[in-house]
Amino acid sequence: MSDMNEAIIEQATMEDMPQMADLLYDLFSHEGDFVPDRQKNLRGLELILEQPSRGRIFVYRLNGQILGMINLLFTISTAEGGFVVLLEDVIVHHNHRGCGVGTQLLNHAIEYAKKKDFLRLTLLADRVNAEGQEFFQKHGFFVSKMIPLRLPLTKEAATLPKG
Fold first, then answer.
1. Domains along the chain?
2. pLDDT digit string (tens) for 148-160?
3. N or C end of the chain, less CB within 10 A?
4. Are strands 82-92 and 121-123 parallel, antiparallel or unpaired?
5. Exposure string (b/e) for 75-95, b if CB count within 10 Å is 16 or more?
């Protein structure tokens, strides 16, 4: 058991879902492709947490409060010939940005992926978030020659902003 004043990064649990949903609401409020929806966010978190083969969510916790989270989704790359990670939902509470929380979470995720023999980490960054892109590039990520394309499969998703 750790000291309550000690910050720790650990695997998220179902009990963490409300705090993580708050972070996701903030994240999706600033991204052009998404509309915040707490119920969808909770369902997505649940889908990951209930089946560890789908991925891992790590949280940065201090005094019982979650100050940041990072979501790793597992998939297979035929190009790499093995398992890879799609890095999603890297978010730090707005009052704690610039204090190293995001770096610690990202480093934890990278070390986890290396230890589990994943071959690559991929992420999508919001085009208009230059600060976020700079953060990831500072940690070794580079801009790919590939571009993301999306096909909405529900009417609700089709009404999201395009471009």
1. 8-158 (3.40.630.30)
2. 888 989 876 655 5
3. N
4. parallel
5. eeeeeeeeebbebbbbbbbee
